[in-house]
Hints:
mainly alpha, 4-stranded antiparallel sheet, about 5% strand, globular
Amino acid sequence: MFMLTRLSYNIRATAMAFFTLVGVLFVSFATPMGRNNDHAAFAVMLIGVILLGTASNYGESFTLTFLQRYPDTIVGAWSSGTGISGVAASLIFMGLTSAGLTEQQTFLVSTPVCIIYWLCFTVGMVAPHKVLVATRTDGKTEEIIIHCLDEDEETHIPMLREQTLARDDVVSVTEDYEIKMIMNFRGVSWRNSPAIRKPEPAKDDSEEGDGLYNPCCRFLCGCCSPTNGLRRWWREQGPDMILMHNTMLWFFFNLAVVYIAEYAAQLMAPFSFYCEPEWVDNFWVKNSYVVTQFCYQFGVLISRSSLLIVQIPYVGVLSIIQVINAICWVIQAKLLFIKSYDKKQQVNMSFILFAWMIFIGLMGGASYVNVFYLILQRSTKMRQKEEEEAVSKYLAAQGHDMGDHAAGSQHRDAAADMGAEKKLHATEPILADMAREHSDEMTQPSGGSDTGRTEPTHAQPYQLTVDNADMTDAEREEIEQIRRTLNDVWAARRETGMNIGAMYATIGITLGNLVCLVFTTRC
């Protein structure tokens, strides 16, 4: 999750699709690949499950980090998609097995989904990109995509423009870039992302200059030489990881708790239905576990699709409710207090458990989507605060009278009047159509063009302060450079926060399975 953050998103999507396909094939052909030996077949199946688990968890992680470039509410669309996939998978499995297909055949039927997944990300998905528009000799236009950090635009864009003009088939190239939605296959670079140059932190003698000032940092990296790759990686990524972890810990903790509880509950489902041997001909009895999983996924779908309708800031309440659900479900699995010795009554009582599992899915899905939304919201506010402080500090250093940080106050007032919640990148105008509820928060680019250069989007609050402070052009440019640098830094930090959230979700799933394992060995 944290080691391959600069790897191209297209390459990551390709790798995840490949691992998923190989994992499904390993699980499907475990017995023949193991030459009908139970131990060998189990080993092959275990490898397949590991590949599938890796693809699932890492795929979730890199998709969440990719979403940080969109409005915060877009995480609701992603969450809704995960809910739909769960419901569809349950229905497909239940339908195909009921139709007489073996589990191997059912798995093989799902293999085209791997290709569909890859096509959806690379071809079906579009993202905002900065482009220069070149006019060719035949009269057609060509979009030259800009792949660079915000802070490198001043040097990279003129160089890219000169290179394009040097082509024989190009007549002209626009001076300023435009923002356009381009499919990922063409818009997202297949090369590694450029490294972000972060400001050097002030060194403290107590830190011994090695950056290993946290106890767990010393435990992990202390045995390595200063030039070791792990230590270099920690020096680059560690401060941001610690910052995002500490500031978002409450959200991460609740996400893990909810996952532990809901997985412990749903995995106890096979042991929660009373059944006599002669009842297995009944559909609801025979498919009780599959129906329960469908009910869980249905609840997840509803709640993960609800972000635009209702937002829940008190995620701790959801965690408490889910823990109570898990405890009660474990008791049900142990004692079967919801049961009947009459077949018809037992089938009717099974619907109580089905409805209960829908409720568990509702709580789990609501926690998931709201936690990731709150992570993005808080990181946006933190970025705004850091930008405000950096500009105020710079103005004070230049001798401007800040009047108890009046500039910061003016910035807050101006931002409040304009909607307050501005996004990290200069892509708000085109993304406003994707999230209508954010339209009042977006600032249109200057110049009367919907696709023109959008630098004023972030600079306008400071423009008010600039006029009052009678700033020079050099100072204005320095403030703009501060904004660009923070755009890059906070884009990486938001990705780190989403990565940590995905990691906590994985930890919760793992612990939930362990809890279930402990109790099921005694059932």
